[in-house]
Design a protein that fits this description.
Elements (H helix, E strand, L loop, with lengths): L3 E6 L4 E6 L7 H7 L21 E4 L4 E4 L2 E2 H7 L2 H10 L5 H13 L5 H7 L9 H12 L12 H27 L12 H10 L10 H13 L7 H10 L5 H13 L6 H12 L5 H9 L18 H17 L5 H12 L2 H5 L6 H12 L6 H22 L26
Antiparallel strand pairs: 1-2, 3-4, 4-5
The chain binds s-citryldethia Coenzyme A.
């Protein structure tokens, strides 16, 4: 049996045999037989938009691999900067490469004074930190006009370092502005995640005391969020980046996509949902509302995983380690009860709705002291190396500008009536 499909145009009897290659069939072969006939796939759920060597997902088996390494092993055995190196430089670093990489990132962590004085101060006092982050990343484009030289691999490499290095600084700055605290500048003596925690929570002149359990847990959360194949925000990177826009406005478009509650904004939405339910005695009523279509069970469901999201499993274990330090989050009982009821209910089982990465992450972030408006910002810090790896991979392959077609369902040709007869 050939590994191929045959397409027949019944109007002409013409056929074309198309090989099956790595689970895909080429649209070129289709277009050669059927020019002007488009696939109708609005949310791209049956469309491969790229060849990529970065992340592999198996939604049925609940597998997630970054460049061949299982997420469970990376979560346990590597730090976020090692994983960032794996994603943007193709391999895990050696000990000496890691030292150089850490220094390169630490040196690039500071942001221009104008960010604090002019950009952050331009926002309302109650501005959502994601709104500040998206705008600030785009504003970086005006600080580094050389970043437009996107076809130069060395320039791309420099911008990749800048963005990975500066995301925590901008994120912490946005938070400090919101809570009316003075900005804390990056400390090159601290590791990446400790430095972020210090920039977020340091008060006064005494050095910030990093709790290693919380630092390690947050570092692992960054690892779990680092990449996820062609998700909505990474697709935004590939689409916007394909126009040869600079990396800052490209990553800003990804952060904008991530902000949506169906995507990275779900972690904040989960917490609001749990707070709304309030007590686990209200869980059954809430589930009834979900099944009636009146509510969504935020943090549940996934386009690819039709099984437990492997990251949710790891997060559930991590939560207990964090709560041992911070004390249990009172909303955990509501979350656990929601999961127990949903996983036993036909409505969720027949729709393959399981907890995803966002179901437990917010509870952990909240217990660490992050406000809900920072949850998606934390997701963005973790996802930045993934976005940049896809951006770099796309440009190194000289891909064409993204420009899908459509099925036109609007009015037929007609003449413009003059205004009195409209
Ligand atoms: C992330 O793509 C990625 O990889 C994303 C991500 C990454 O790392 O980048 O994994 C991160 O975004 C995780 C997802 C976070 N979002 C949420 O938790 C929001 C809640 N989930 C849903 O909005 C939804 O499940 C999506 C958006 C995640 C997936 O949507 P799909 O694939 O378009 O599924 P669908 O809307 O077609 O749903 C299929 C059915 C529908 O019911 P029927 O019409 O068949 O009766 O399942 C129902 C939906 O109504 N359904 C839900 C539900 N999710 C789907 N019902 C209740 N609660 C939900 N959460």
């Amino acid at each position: 049996m050939a590994d191929s499909v045959t397409i027949t145009d019944n109007r002409t009897g013409q056929t074309v045999e198309v090989p099956l290659v790595d689970g895909t069939v080429s649209a070129k072969a289709w277009s050669s037989l059927l020019p002007g006939v488009w696939f109708d796939d609005p949310s791209f759920s049956a469309t491969s938009g790229a060849d990529s060597a970065i992340t592999f997902l198996d939604g049925g088996a609940g597998l997630l691999h970054y460049r061949g390494y299982p997420i469970e092993q990376l979560a346990e055995r590597t730090t976020f900067l090692e994983v960032a190196h794996l994603l943007v430089r193709d391999e895990l670093p050696t000990a000496s490469q890691l030292k150089d990489w850490q220094r390169e990132i630490a040196e690039a962590a500071p942001i221009h004074e104008n960010f604090h004085k002019r950009i952050f101060e331009g926002f309302r006092d109650d501005a959502h930190t994601m709104g500040v982050l998206v705008s600030s990343i785009a504003a970086m484009s005006t600080f580094w006009p050389d970043s437009k030289d996107i076809e130069n691999p060395d320039q791309r490499r420099a911008e990749i370092v800048r963005l990975i290095a500066k995301m925590p600084t901008v994120a912490a700055g946005a938070y400090r502005r919101n809570v009316g605290l003075p900005y804390v500048f990056p400390d090159p003596e601290l590791d990446y995640t400790s430095n972020f925690l210090a920039m977020m929570f340091k008060v006064g002149d005494s050095p910030y005391e990093v709790n290693p359990v919380l630092r390690d847990a947050l570092d692992m959360l960054f690892v779990l969020h680092a990449d996820h194949e062609q998700n909505c925000s990474t697709t935004a990177v590939r689409v916007v980046g394909s126009s040869h826009a600079d990396p800052y406005v490209t990553v800003a478009s990804a952060a904008a996509a991530l902000y949506g509650p169906r995507h990275g904004g779900a972690n904040e939405a989960v917490l609001r949902m749990l707070e709304g339910i309030g007590d686990y005695s209200n869980v059954d009523n809430f589930i009834t509302e979900v099944k009636a279509g009146e509510q969504k069970l935020m943090g549940f469901g996934h386009r690819v995983y039709k099984n437990y999201d492997p990251r949710a499993k790891i997060l559930k274990d991590t939560a207990h380690r964090v709560f041992d330090v911070t004390g249990t989050n009172p909303l955990l009982d509501v979350a656990l009860k929601l999961e127990e009821v949903a996983l036993a209910d036909e409505y969720f089982v027949e729709r393959s709705l399981y907890p995803n990465v966002d179901f437990y992450s917010g509870l952990i972030y909240q217990s660490m002291g992050f406000p809900a408006e920072m949850f998606t910002v934390l997701f963005a810090i973790g996802r930045t190396p993934g976005w940049l790896a896809h951006w770099d991979e796309m440009l190194s392959r000289n891909s064409r500008i993204a420009r899908p077609r459509q099925r036109y369902i609007g009015p037929a040709d007609r003449d413009v009536p003059d205004i009195d007869s409209r």
